[in-house]
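Lab notebook: predicted structure, single chain.

Context: the supervisor wants predicted structures on file for every construct in the current expression panel, including those that have not yet been purified. This is the next one on the list. No modifications to the sequence; it matches the entry in the shared construct table.
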Amino acid sequence: MLEREPGRYLITQRSKTASLPLLWEFPGGRVHHGETDAGALQRELKERLGLDVDVDEQAMTTHHEYDSYTLDFTVFHCRPARADQEVSHAVVADHRWVGLDEMGQFKFPDADARTLAKLLDLDM
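Prediction complete. Output recorded below exactly as produced.
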């Protein structure tokens, strides 16, 4: 989870043409062969959002099965490498910096919702 200031986390809105269009998610992406999870996160956030980040410790993992594929979700604590960076909307429809208490206002894909529930210690 990318934290800009204490308790404010980045969520992004999927584009209209993406699978699960216009839902909100924690930014990240796929791990390429030979990449570490943390290295993939740094690369994906740079490619998709134009952000340089420092990745800290792993926070949690979760597993979710959609109808057509399975997703293993690894969450890291991370922060912007520089305070002056702006989030690019080249690949995403929108973004927000939100507190955990505000995340219920946004519709997430099931895997992200499960991750959020684990972060908030909710049963799902």
